[in-house]
Design a protein that fits this description.
It is a single chain. Helices cover 38% and strands 18% of the residues. The protein contains 18 helices and 16 strands. The strands form two sheets. Strands 1, 2, 3, 4, 5, 6, 7, 8, 9 and 10 form a ten-stranded mixed beta sheet that branches. A six-stranded parallel beta sheet has the order 13-12-11-14-15-16, sandwiched between helices. It has two domains: 284 residues, 3-Layer(aba) Sandwich (Rossmann fold); 182 residues, Rossmann fold (3-Layer(aba) Sandwich). Bound molecules: alpha-D-glucopyranose.
Length: 495
């Protein structure tokens, strides 16, 4: 090809007399109660901190994806370079309440923080006062829906997450009835049993109509069911969980309703931040390694044993539990299983905080086996990484698990997960290929899965194959973000 026709080929369409091609834009407002690195309490924070950016990263010459994040300005939230927006008001609690909004950014993504008295009045992200939380998040949801007008930007999609922001979809729907505006609504379900408190009064005081819905009567004024009812699409955080919530066991009383509306329900597996969670470069580790240099991993195990005050011995099996202390996570099953493994030589480290009763049982367990079991009752991101890099196995016997992130991080670090066959755990761990899976939520089932794993552990080659299988699985956000994008596109298609 000579230079002349090379230039000709690169000419924009304008030379044919057409208007230059303008990329299509998808604009979506992503609402969450928490998002890493601003504020994080649990898995929702990981997802909301990553997914919106991953969606934006899918932009190309033909399609611009402009997803923006909006969060409550919790008192514990950390943010820099805040730019205040002009204050505005929303009708809430029978009065006009002032919204103090700020704009900042996260790696190029605009992020809005919604402040105001109802948010300031509550000291924490989630409290034990369900009613107060519902008031706070109703205010947040209303303010977030009004925000776009004040920044002269119009989303085609409102993407809400869990009960906290679900009412935004209901508000959006009422706006659709009033103005005919066609903003679509998506709700991602991270944890179905948490539905928020009865909000009839709140809705009335905010001047919102109470809709005639086909929801079961008890659910008609709860934020999560209302959000599900209002959403154009509902996404569970794994295909397994999407199927489970249609059943009585996991559907929290909405299974029949969900079954009737199945056509708008899908499951999209969460990813993990594979750049941050990478044993080859993770700064929290003393020794970095990867699937090709797996022999180096043992140094992390020995350092961890030393740090915890356990006997430094590469041959003693070391179990890790990295979890919120919550009945959902089945940590009590793990404690009972460990208590009942008296004749087995092992060590265990338990990290996490939460339910005081479970914290107490963890302390008791350590008191029973001080030489074998170490309990650290706090959230510690660095120690968690050292456990993923040092422990041989991760125990995750969840009673239900919409997705679960720890098992994916563990696999990426060569820590073999032993999980219950529920929700996202079942979708991500392949029995005897990347981990061990058991069915019943009973400690004996966990013990037998542990025993199967312990039979293989001494066979270095077989064990390393299990580790490598997990380490080389693709748990990145790319595939999931693409599935969300397909959903966005299906909702914004104009032709
Ligand atoms: C909730 C779920 C967990 C999921 C996370 C992120 O914390 O319990 O399974 O991984 O949300 O979606």
């Amino acid at each position: 090809m000579n230079k002349a026709n090379a230039i000709y080929l690169r000419m924009p369409p304008l030379i044919y007399g057409k208007i230059p091609f303008m990329p299509k834009t998808i604009q979506a407002l992503f609402l969450a109660a928490e998002a890493d690195p601003f504020i994080k309490v649990g898995g929702l924070g990981d997802v909301a901190g990553t997914l919106p950016r991953e969606l934006r990263a899918l932009s190309n010459d033909d399609l611009k994806i402009d997803v923006r994040l909006v969060l409550p300005y919790h008192s514990a939230l950390k943010a820099e370079d805040l730019r205040p927006l002009e204050p505005f008001t929303v009708r809430c609690g029978g009065a006009d309440v002032v919204v103090e909004a700020f704009e900042t950014s996260l790696q190029g993504m605009p992020v809005y923080l919604i402040g105001g008295e109802p948010i300031r009045a509550s000291g924490s992200v989630y409290s034990l006062d369900a009613k107060a939380d519902s008031e706070k998040y109703a205010f947040f949801s209303l303010a977030a829906i009004e925000l776009p007008k004040h920044i002269h930007w119009r989303p085609q999609i409102i993407h809400a997450n869990d009960w906290h922001t679900a009412l935004s979809l209901y508000v959006n729907l009422t706006r659709r009835w009033e103005s005919g505006e066609q903003t679509a609504g998506i709700l991602t379900l991270h944890n179905m049993p948490f539905m928020g408190a009865d909000s009839r009064e709140i809705l009335e005081r905010c001047g919102l109509p109470i809709a005639q819905t086909d929801l079961p009567e008890w659910a008609r004024t709860l934020p999560l069911p209302l959000g599900i009812w209002s959403a154009d699409k509902v996404v569970a955080v794994s295909p397994g969980y999407a199927a489970e919530i249609l059943t009585e066991e996991f559907g929290c009383g909405l299974n029949e309703f969900m079954t009737q509306h199945q056509e708008s329900l899908s499951g999209i597996l969460n990813g993990i931040d594979t750049v941050s969670f990478d044993p080859a470069v993770d700064k929290a580790l003393s020794v970095n390694y990867d699937a090709e240099r797996l022999d180096l991993r043992v140094e992390n195990k020995e350092l961890l044993q030393e740090k915890l005050g356990l006997a430094r011995d590469p041959n003693i099996p070391l179990f890790g539990v990295v979890s919120r202390m919550d009945p959902q996570k089945g940590v009590d099953l793990a404690f009972t299983a460990l208590k009942n493994m008296k004749r087995i030589d092992f060590q265990a480290v338990i990290l996490g905080s939460g339910d005081p009763k479970l914290e107490e049982s963890a302390r008791e367990l350590q008191a029973l086996f001080p030489e074998k079991i170490k309990v650290i009752l706090r959230y510690d991101a660095n120690l968690a990484r050292q456990i993923y890099a040092g422990a041989d196995m991760l125990l995750m016997p969840s009673r239900y698990e919409p997705c679960g992130l720890s098992q994916m991080i563990a696999m990426r670090y060569g820590c073999v997960p032993i999980v219950r066959a529920v929700g996202g755990l079942k979708d991500t761990v392949i029995p005897e290929e990347t981990g061990f899976v058991f069915e019943k939520a009973h400690f004996m089932s966990l013990v037998s899965a542990i025993k199967s794993a312990l039979k293989i552990l001494p066979d270095r080659e077989r064990w390393q194959t299990l580790q490598r299988n997990g380490m080389t699985k693709d748990f990145s956000w790319q595939t999931s973000a693409q599935e969300y994008l397909d959903l966005y596109q299906s909702l914004t298609a104009t032709e």
